[in-house]
Design goal:
alpha/beta, nine-stranded mixed β-sheet, two-stranded parallel sheet, oxidoreductase, 51% helix, transmembrane
């Protein structure tokens, strides 16, 4: 199912695909998981900049609504109903975008699925489905985008990750594992593209907790209502940061103070964070409201159109900080070197102070020996 909408151009649009010599006309972005939550906010953010946006997701009703949001923002929408777990369907979707608009400048792999519960409560089918969507869905999208981008030696692929790709938490083991797998796949691909001297760009964004509808429709084995682990962020500023990552293509882009803290903390003190997550992340993923285990959207798209935000708006932050992973690691390394240098200097001064009394005692003994002699 597809739906084309009229082409709307805006003066001053940041068409960085065209700026890099990719041809005339508005730039083209593809966003998976674009019918709700972060994906929808990203699609609208591209629309505000005058882009042509292909929206890929399950659920015709939500896709049509998201397309209207993109148009209202000033963009052009192409709706493609597809499950990212279906590799052939995603290949066909990419071909349809190129047939319609001639190229793909940016491909954002955002679609995800999760199941909440202890590892012992999960079934193999549930884990497989989370893997198929959250990990293999990004693999399928990447391969489909590469098929067209490599031919032009141009384009940017954005992998939407999570702080949980570095710092796993309890009760979402399948999701954490899938996000970590995406990071490993992306790192390998990046080296291969560099080996080829390819101009195709690859970036991965690591997200904090965001107020999206997923906490009302994700599969759950828990007996309390779900929530993102606080602090929670509004989806729109996070989406704007993802668009910046698409424009600048840093190796990684860490969005949100909690993301930066979690990643750097895991590098410095992983055992300490294990114990912290055992306490805080367990209860932090649930409210005090009772709930029943539910099937959720793991295998079937739920009805309705929840939009971009979830039910935590009153608790969500309207601003979000972001930094490239390279910069953050550099700051950590500089801090560590500074601490090491300080420790060395302190040890040297301490050693010098301890050496002085000994030197004086030696000199006193030498003077006494000369007097006796």
């Amino acid at each position: 199912m597809t739906e084309n909408v009229h082409d709307t151009r805006r003066t001053g649009a940041r068409a960085f695909g065209a700026e890099r010599g990719h041809g005339a006309g508005a730039s083209v972005a593809v966003v998976t998981g674009a019918s709700a939550g972060i994906g929808r906010a990203v699609a609208v953010a591209f629309g505000r900049d005058g882009w042509r946006v292909a929206l890929i997701a399950r659920g015709r009703e939500r896709l049509a609504s998201a397309a209207r949001d993109v148009e209202a923002a000033g963009g052009t929408a192409l709706v493609i109903e597809a499950d990212v777990a279906d590799a052939a369907r995603i290949e066909a979707a990419a071909a349809q975008v190129v047939e319609t608009w001639g190229r793909i400048d940016v491909w954002v792999n955002n679609a995800m699925a999760s199941v909440f519960g202890p590892v012992t409560s999960l079934t193999p089918d549930e884990i497989r489905r989370v893997t198929d969507v959250t990990y293999l869905g990004q693999v399928h999208g990447t391969l489909a985008a590469l098929r067209h981008m490599r031919a032009r030696d141009a384009g940017t692929i954005v992998q939407v990750g999570s702080a949980l790709s570095y710092r796993s938490i309890p009760l979402q083991s399948a999701y954490c594992a899938a996000k970590a797998a995406v990071r490993g796949f992306t790192d390998s691909l990046r080296s291969e593209l560099q080996h080829e001297n390819s101009r195709v760009r690859l970036t991965m964004v690591q997200l904090p907790a965001v107020d999206t509808p997923q906490f009302d429709w994700a599969r759950s084995h828990l007996t309390r209502s779900l929530q993102p682990v606080p602090p929670i962020h509004e989806p729109e500023p996070v989406a704007d940061a993802i668009v910046r990552a698409a424009r600048d293509a840093p190796r990684e882009y860490w969005i949100g103070g909690p993301t930066i803290q979690a990643i750097l903390g895991t590098m410095v003190a992983p055992g300490l964070l294990d114990r912290m997550m055992a306490r805080r992340a367990w209860d932090g993923q649930m409210t005090d409201d009772p709930a029943r285990p539910r099937e959720g959207n793991l295998f079937d798209a739920p009805p309705g159109d929840p939009g971009t935000r979830g039910r935590f708006g009153a608790r969500s932050r309207r601003r979000v900080m972001s930094v490239s992973g390279t910069t953050a690691r550099g700051v950590l390394a500089a801090t560590a070197l500074g601490c090491l240098a300080g420790a060395v200097m302190a040890a040297w001064h301490l050693g010098a102070r301890q050496a002085k009394p000994a030197d004086r005692r030696l000199a006193d003994r030498e003077r006494a020996a000369r007097m006796i002699g």
